From TrEMBL:
One of its GO terms (molecular function) is cellulose synthase (UDP-forming) activity. One of its GO terms (biological process) is cell wall organization. The active site is at residues 137, 442. This is Cellulose synthase-like protein E6. UDP-alpha-D-glucose binds at residues 108, 137. Mn(2+) binds at residues 278, 302.
Amino acid sequence: MERSMRLFETETHGGRAAYRLHAVTVAAGILLLLYYRATRVPAAGEGRAAWLGMLAAELWYAAYWVVTQSVRWSPVRRRPFIDRLAARHGERLPCVDIFVCTADPYSEPPSLVVSTILSLMAYNYPPEKLSVYLSHDGGSILTFYGMWEASLFAKHWLPFCKRYNIEPRSPAAYFSESDGHQELCNPKEWSLIKDMFDKMTERIDTVVMSGKVPEEIKASHKGFYEWNQEITSKNHQPIVQILIDSKDQNAVDNEGKVLPTLVYMAREKRPQHHHNFKAGAMNALIRVSSVISNSPIIMNVDCDMYSNNNDAVRDALCFFLDEEMGHKIGFVQYPQNYYNLSKNNIYGNSLHVINEVEMGGMDSLGGPMYIGTGCFHRREILCGRKFTEDYQEDWNAGIKDKLQESIDETEEKAKSLAACTYEHGTQWGDEIGVKYGCVVEDVNTGLAIHCRGWDSVYNNPKRPAFMGVGPTTLAQTILQHKRWSEGIFSIFLSKYNVFLFAHGKTKLRHQMGYHIYGLWAPNSLATLYYVIIPSLALLKGTSLFPEITSPWIAPFVYVFCVKNMYSLYEALLSGDTLKGWWNGQRMWLVKRITSYLFGVLDNLRKLLGLSKINFVVTPKVSDEDESKRYEQEIMEFGSSDPEYVIIAAIALLNLVCLMGGLSKVMKGGWNVHLDALFPQLILCGMLVITSIPFYEAMFLRKDKGRIPFPVTLASIGFVMLALLAKIV
């Protein structure tokens, strides 16, 4: 078929020749820097140990820089054509199952989950071909109540969305932008729908606060009687409730049009059986959906990530249904975007460079990794199918009119597939389904798919397909990155190490792309060394860099300046502000000395058998004061977490060392010491400037988000110990 009729096109990023010249010059600078470091080792007793440590840290940084170049050499963009899809297939499109996972009604409020569910039900897609499933690992009646409310409100919300073609179709997001949309609708109808949504949200929040569902509401649906006083979040029977069945002639909205299928599932939990966290929930959904809808395409999102683009499903199908390349594509990954970022990205959570640069780079090498949300899979690849050139998908697969049993019979069959003992003695979690044994099960699963011969595709439309809730406190950010870095580093240390597991199955550069994130955690060790040792050496008067008048200072200055200038260029090009980039640099430092450090330590503890895998959900809520400080871009501390002691101690250490170093230089005469110590003064000074918000939180702020006095006291103690130890 002619190229013009392809369902998608692939475009290469511009400016690659200039970038490659830049990369070559930086590589030359790094080699010169390492040559200098290796050939100028001082004598014993003159800072040799510190010098060799600097060499080791710089070797690590050099190796990691090479790894990061793998995805920047030839990144691509994809452009789907849904008009061609419509011309070729009309409404003869495959059925799609949508999976949403949630765990706790207090960390992930049902009112938030409900808006996500409603946005997914309202896609521009034949509703009889959509089935939305919620897996609730907490097994709470409160979340089921929210789903029941959603099933009623959907009868009004879906026709309203389609009548006025509104975006976004999350009612919470839509009505928060009310003034910008109201004139596009009938004002009376707009007010009526908004009032219905506000009252529904109030009812859901009231039930959550009270912790129980009123008896008169329980009588409205048989599903409420699945719960009794003995049920807990970790000990309950399997629960499957089909709230809307699109095959039921009565399952229609208030205009008489079919509604998508809506299903609630809480897989069985027993204390004596490991439930394998989100991976176990996903596998239960795969099995449960197989007896209800069995769609050939499965899409999954996190419970806080609402649909922001009505055509995301059709966009994804442009890749799967393309006649030239579609048969090779195993999954289509969308970026993870947040709608609640502060103006200047105070906690560095935007992921802009990852979304705009790195994922597109992986796409040119075999495809992006599976990031666990915003992803469309073929059902068969999640069930372990290997790629073959003659593979042909049956897009008509799915359970439609042939289903004869009643809803009750279907639910009972589905419950047996959600039992905690169902997987015993099977390949689920290994060769079939989402993989077990890691808190970032998505990365392992995507890697296995790539190693079975499938490609993946990264689609980053101008209007983001999904918008989620990003961390709004420092504690939430540190927790999220600790989980990510710990999980991906555990893959590096396991049999799934990409260089070993994917050897001969994927390109070397593709394997390196995976390790950009797999090596986040060990980056903490080199970073800790670089933010502590040069500063202590400055205080002692020991030079660890070439003199400022030496020609050997040139590669150090060049690599530092050019690398940071290019980092700024990437950030600005990806949508960050200048201040946002600076905040991102600070947060990379914070994450490396906290989240990633604890990721290393936790992996060591697991290797020694001192701890087990644990999955901690990042809270999606903050109190009113925290939210206000977040909007004002004031960093949130407020507790005595050990991570804050590390941050405060390193900030204070660099302040003391800078003051001490300047004092030594001035007392000894500028000409005597400045040449030798100037690079360390600059490094220490930049760390001090970066740490200004930490000094404010320790000594100037009076609000509840400041660094508590015990943390400041402990950090002062650690600084004194470091100074007394004379470790340089």
